[in-house]
Amino acid sequence: MPITVTHRDGALIAALSGEIDHHGARAMMDELGELIAARLPQRLVLDLSGVTFMDSSGIAVLLRALREMKRLGGSLRVTNIPTQARRVLDAAGVGRLITLD
After folding, report:
1. Contact in structure between 79 and 101 (CB atoms under 8 Å)
2. Domains of the chain by range and CATH?
3. How many Å apart are CA 79 and CA 73, to the nearest integer?
4. How many CA atoms are closer than 13 Å to the CA of 63, on its beta-carbon side?
5. What is the rounded distance in angstroms from the CA atom of residue 23 to the CA atom of residue 11?
6. Is residue 77 helix, strand or coil?
7. Whole-model pTM?
8. Among 51, 53, 55, 84, which is disulfide-ready with 19 (CB 3.0 to 4.6 Å)?
9. What is d(CA 69, CA 42) in angstroms, rounded to the nearest whole number?
């Protein structure tokens, strides 16, 4: 699952694509962790516009990114959330922990 990285308005933007499920979640967590460790962003935006499916493993990916950003004293925002992924995140109450746009 490729992650495309850009910068905008002082934020590091990581665009995720494909399926975020138990098959790919570990690799995605590792890739995001390496990205955060290398760039040390103060603001991370995860763009989910390219995500075609997400299950509870996707929640783990987001929570791990949140933990890494909090460790740096930074923030995390998730944007462009597809309908199916939004249902998963809303059902789990993730919006209480992470800003979902």
Report:
1. yes
2. 3-100 (3.30.750.24)
3. 20
4. 12
5. 29
6. strand
7. 0.93
8. 53
9. 7
